[in-house]
Description:
By secondary structure, the chain is an all-alpha fold.
Amino acid sequence: xxxxxxxxxxxxxxxxxxxxxxxxxxxAVLALLYYLLFSAKVPGPDGIESRAEWYVIGTNIFEALxxxxxxxxxxxxxxxxxxxxxxxxxxxxxxGMLSYFLGGIFFGYTEIILKEEPDxxxxxxxxxxxxxxxxxxxxxxxxxxxxxxxxxxxxxxxxIGVFGSLLAWWISLQQTKPLELLGTILNWFYVVSDxxxxxxxxxxxxxxxxxxxxxxxxxxxxxAFSLYIAxxxxxxxxxxIPNYQSGExxxxxxxxxxxxxxxxxxxxxxxxxxxxxxxxxxxxx
Length: 285
């Protein structure tokens, strides 16, 4: 029994909020350094410049572990009855993060192992699930909290929505590669979803600003912005750069997004537990 207690205590002492946040920050910094130091292309035997395969594998690992860790933290929130924003919010976001992890695995397998770049792959199924569940989770969070923004705050939301929409529309016009019908539908689904999540995240950030869980939703908003940046860059690159090979520096924002979703989850978990302790203390008093 004493051994079990010591193991439990050690587990709790290691996986504290501060340690998890530091781990997330460290993972993001390592990913940034990895992209900066090793993303250069080198000439191959045929004279064509390309990135080393081990580098592309590494970028996939950084991204996959970020979203896997984020899904675990979000699902931990779902299991907690004290969570402030509502358990279903984090269940939906957790499923979305897990789906993105699986989508990335299939995308990496197609690109690295099969050496293919199809317009539509099985990975897209998981990416679509990601957007649907993350969007649903954010909408549930908005429904859980009464949205009552000031006029200037609505103007910020409107400005970000307009800018995000115009940028996505302009990038979509750069499409020169002909797509099949399903590829075209998916293309516009991703564009609309990126902009929608960006708008919802901004609204939630302003709605929760100054509240008990303000820090967590700042992280979620930053995660949505990072996801938008990475997606828009990848869309622009695949449309405008001939024979584009993944691994450019802006793709590190996918890693940032996964890390930030996880940090948002752990900060809300900590805030919810602190609130629960205060309420128990008042009841005893």
